[in-house]
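Review box. Two proteins, two foldings.
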Amino acid sequence: MQKNIKTDLLYDPENYFWIKPEGDKARIGMSPLVEQTSGSFVAIQFSKIGESISKNESFGSAEAEKHVGHMKMPVSGTITAINEKVVSNPRLINTDPYGEGWLLEVDLSNFTAEYDSLIAGEENIRKWFEAELKKFDDKGWLAQP
């Protein structure tokens, strides 16, 4: 079971995305927790560049071995870039979620107000991650090695 989680990022505990803010912009990707329950990704589609999307609204869809559904925006913003490498090779989400497997970049529009809904800080992130893995394991949701 993968237990590698980067603790220098922010995490959306509702939708399991990581957020790397840089000024008024941010890069967004899926946390490794998604892979633990979804399996290998096989297809991904994004909303269009230039589209403004509010927190918890859909910014695209993902199809994996065990899950098909909408991806919900972890923060409000306007899409400025999508990772075409992930569109052509969705497995990058599984193999390199923090590197080549990032999803999109946005211009943040309400980050100050939304920051408190995110998990930050190494200790908080580790506690949350371990608690989520235990919850998934207790419910039998984890992909078996």
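Next protein.
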Amino acid sequence: MRGFLFFSFLLSYLVGSIPTAYILVKFFKGIDIRKFGSGNVGATNAIRVLGKKKGILVLIIDVVKGVIPVVFLANFFKSKITFIPESLLRVILGVFAVIGHNWTLFLKFKGGKGVATTFGVLIGLAVKLEGFVLVLITCLFTWTFVFILSRIVSLSSIITALFFPLFMILFRQSKELILASFIFASFILLRHLSNIRRLLQKKEPKI
């Protein structure tokens, strides 16, 4: 059983590790996205480099990378990993998917910032866990509201990450999910340290 647990973690990490922006920019333009725009291997920089239509394709795939472990891999492994509650298994697999995206094996452990994949994890949890859809909707509303006001993707992501654990507490999620929300929020804030510095210096670009 513990072998299945390790294997589920590994698969979730590998799914998250797929460097979507790097692959599609290389395919469409034949260039290394890390050398253009912000240099980040994520959807926002892909939109800058590829344009909106192809960049949004990157965004969609990065979201799906978060959905797959939480919904499909957890469905497959839940009957084999019975010593962990199903809801907790889904959350842990989601965490590993985001770790994979942020620190991808395929690019020397330098990946994206995890916002899109984290959103995919939240979609998966909303599909599978009762009452979680309110958390998802509130996070989406917060991100959209800040973005409409600022037109800055990083600021929208940072503000939403800061409020995410509060939303979890407000909508009375389990202690395990609240703890996970702090982990996801910490990942996003950690990956946005350079953006925070630019925001404080008023140098962060709008989109």
